[in-house]
Amino acid sequence: MFSKLSLNMSRFSFYELILLLINSCHTLVDWLLAAIYDLVRFLLFRNRDVYRSESVKRLRKLPLHLGLVVVEEDELSIADLARIVAWSVLVGISCISVYDHRGHLKLKWKEEELRTKSTKEVEKLLSKKKTPSSFQALSSPLTQQNSSNKPNDAINLLQKKNGFHKHSTTILGSQLHVLGPKDGQSNLISVTKELCSQDNLRFEDIDVLYVDSLMQKTSGFPDPDLVFRFGSTQSMLGFLPWQLRLSEIFSLRTHKNLGFSEYFNCLDAFADIKQRCGI
């Protein structure tokens, strides 16, 4: 009896070992594929002349507000985010928001690091001979005017004082907002308090358009019409829940080592989309 029991237990342990080995092999294969993907993408984009003026000029439209939403669990790369912000500034996007669902970017030193590196990246790109003409077609007038001056004179950083503006910076006419999970919640709370404080407001006066106007007044920036979501999680994890009703969302595997061609392809795809607003 005891020998049969021991035999069954040994068989059970053997099957457990086989399952463990299979799971380990799957994990190893996934890791290797991810590593190969990152290596190939890096080799493809590192030496490519991606700042082609004719490519940028052919875009039919640009987003007014580009949201960069990081839902990855890995460590943030401030340098990679700063490079994406710099591209967006020089292309001519007037509002850029960077969101980290864990709130790490809202730490004072990381937020300052993102601003500083974004500014330096813009300076570096403006100092290259090919870059100013490449972005000339879609850059703001301020960008075009300053691109011929010294890079240090072209950068203008303005620190705001309250609300979302406390974490806002202006670079060459483009607003950079650093957001965390509490920002969307606080915005909704502020609007709710505003509605409750209006004694003469009737129930039938409260509709989507009215609430939307209050939300934009509180946030100080337009709703994001284009969002780049970095990571495999199929969720925005708290990024501006009200303002995403009409946003176009592009999912990208990671924000690290993102090439300009991949970035530009998303802008190109957005430019071809006809937003009918539910019509």
TrEMBL record:
InterPro entries: Nus1/NgBR, UPP_synth-like_sf. It is found in: Endoplasmic reticulum membrane. Gene3D superfamilies: Decaprenyl diphosphate synthase-like. The chain crosses the membrane at residues 12-37. Residues 132-151 have a biased composition (Polar residues). GO terms for cellular component: dehydrodolichyl diphosphate synthase complex; endoplasmic reticulum membrane. It comes from the Eukaryota. Keywords: Endoplasmic reticulum, Magnesium, Membrane, Transferase, Transmembrane, Transmembrane helix. It catalyses: n isopentenyl diphosphate + (2E,6E)-farnesyl diphosphate = a di-trans,poly-cis-polyprenyl diphosphate + n diphosphate. GO terms for molecular function: ditrans,polycis-polyprenyl diphosphate synthase [(2E,6E)-farnesyl diphosphate specific] activity. Its main location: endoplasmic reticulum. Its EC number is 2.5.1.87. Pathway: Protein modification; protein glycosylation. Residues 132-154 are annotated as: Disordered. Its cofactor is Mg(2+). Belongs to the UPP synthase family. This is ditrans,polycis-polyprenyl diphosphate synthase [(2E,6E)-farnesyldiphosphate specific]. It comes from Helobdella robusta. The gene is 20212459.
